[in-house]
Design a protein that fits this description.
It is a single chain. The protein is 53% helix and 7% strand. The protein contains 4 helices and 2 strands. The chain has a two-stranded antiparallel sheet with strand order 1-2. The radius of gyration is 21 Å and the shape is flat. The N and C termini lie far apart (46 Å). Bound molecules: zinc ion. The site of zinc ion has 8 residues, from helix 3.
């Protein structure tokens, strides 16, 4: 975070700099009460602590749905950045790839 804050200083981006400082201080003060601990979260996407919490929350919300699936998988497909003029071709290709994945039987 400190290196990112330095980059913001050179670019005079005070908004982003503030976000990075919030992440730097995320969970730096923890209060314990009645066998539980509490802290202040920054809730930024680039914070590893807050991302993990957000991911756990999403899994918890979707769990009732995917627990009924026979064989659930989590899959992330990525491609290199493409030029704007070929973007629609790439998106169509991704849809074709998804349809092949969905109809291909598991061996
Ligand atoms: Zn955070």
């Amino acid at each position: 975070m400190l290196n990112l804050i330095d980059v913001c200083k050179t670019k005079e981006d005070s908004q982003r700099q503030k976000s990075y400082w919030n992440t730097y201080h995320c969970q730096n003060k923890i209060i314990s009460s009645k066998n539980r601990i509490y802290g202040k979260y920054c809730k930024n996407r680039f914070c590893t602590v807050c991302s993990a919490i957000r991911k756990a929350d999403i899994i918890h919300r979707y769990y009732p749905t995917f627990k009924s699936w026979e064989e659930p998988h989590f899959l992330t497909l990525t491609v290199r950045a493409v030029k704007i003029k070929s973007l629609s071709k790439w998106i169509n290709g991704m849809f074709r790839a998804f349809s092949l994945i969905l109809i291909t039987p598991v061996l």
